[in-house]
Here is the input.
Amino acid sequence: MLVLLVFTEFCRDEFEAYMIYSTLSRVPFIGRYYGEVLRRFAEVEYGHYMFFKSISGCGEFRFIRFKVVLYLILLILFGVTFVIKLLERSEFNAVVKYRSVNVDDPEVLSRLEGVIKDEEGHERLLIEGIDERKVRYLGSITLGISDSLIELTGIYAGSLGAFSNTLITGLTGLLAGLSASISMAVASYIQARSEGVKNPRIAAIFTFTAYITVAILLSLPYLTLLNLITAFTVMLIIAITTTAYMTLYTSVINNRKFTKEFIETTALILGVSILLYITGTLVRKFVGIMID
Here is the structure.
């Protein structure tokens, strides 16, 4: 009875995998390699589903569409490499689950071992197709985003004690972001050249683009809103959302824990913001200047 329940769960997992692979294989921007690979995977996963169905008697499942749509959304938001890493992780987890089952029937055991080999083969093919260039330059992108978030949120927090005009504050942050993005790009170029594992020009472009993109996003509340506190609050929400996005991406790509990294980065952003807000307030009190 227990084995039957376990095989019903496996049946559902394989049907989900079939639906996800077959849907993703038809997405135009998944790429030719993954389009063909996922089409083949879908056929194999359907065979696995039929095998588990023959034992457990399971049928098609509801709510599968939600998971398929979720993967499509993740593909749009995070790109192909992120989704492929998720699929690779799911293949690994499937192998672990299948190996944990004790089966007495020799024929069923032989079929199950065949399923395990298929899943391990899928895992290898997924890893082989990952665009290593994107992974290799992930450090340059992370450098630009994290530095921009911490530096500019600090600048905007400090401006609360010195500025009263949102437009001036936004332009100040944007100009600071532009100059800092150039300096960070140069630093990234020099670092990549010294390491010798990345193209320095591409590393610099990634760092500059990441930095200036965040700088523009953080300046938008100040350029569109009139109240300084409201603009600062919206800016912080954008900063934390960007942090969550980037942390989730890097944690999946590098197989790290999301929660710990997100809390650490958010704490740094808020800590720097509080410190520079206090500094800006003290400067205004001692100097006695408030820029309107």
Observations:
- The mean pLDDT is 83.
- The CA atoms of residues 99 and 113 lie 8 Å apart.
- Residues 134-287 form one domain.
- The two ends are 75 Å apart (CA to CA).
